[in-house]
Design goal:
The protein is of the alpha+beta class and 206 residues long. The strands form two sheets. It has a six-stranded antiparallel sheet, with helices on one face. Strands 5-4-9-10-11 form a five-stranded antiparallel sheet, with helices on one face. The longest helix has 50 residues. It starts with 5 loop residues before the first helix and ends with a strand. The chain has one helix and eleven strands; from the N terminus they run αβββββββββββ.
Length: 206
Amino acid sequence: MKGFSLAEIIVVLAIITLIMGTVLYNAPLFNMRIAMTQAARLLSFGLRDAQSRAVAVQVNASGSAPNTYGIWVTTSTADGNLNNIRDNEQYTLFSDVKNVDGRYDLPIGPTCGDATQDPECVARYTFQRGIRIFRLVRPGPPATNVNEFSILFRRPDPTVSIHDGATIFSPFTSGTFGPFQIYIESSDASINKEIDIWLTGQVSVK
């Protein structure tokens, strides 16, 4: 029986090496794409969680049942949450119970849910692998980049109001229903995802 020649073995090994090199080279990019998809879904699930809590009369840590739950996101790189994490690398599930002004009120201490330090915070979620929020767009005309969104669901309506830090938008007062756009990006800014929210309560990931 005739075996493989040395040349044939060398060619096969070269092909295997080339394939493995390509796979290993693309592995970080592939893993980051997966992480970006998971981060976008995490944020969209967070919005759905806030909506379901508002509609289902979810009891908070103090034992009361607020009629609003929402999500706060920002492009700020500051540490407004006082938890040693940049604000744009996380999002906050909150209830509008302090000033009842349609937006999340930043804490005076790091403890989420504490009646003195951060009474509106219900939970905070941090993106993994350096993923961050890098752009928030309010629909126009004209479409405008803004620094923050407080996306608030109110019982018993399935609709949503959105506060951009200066103006509050709702289906009853706004000339547009959306979408209000949240963009997240990878740590090296090479990949981004878009999450769209309408004032009718719809959420989609692109």
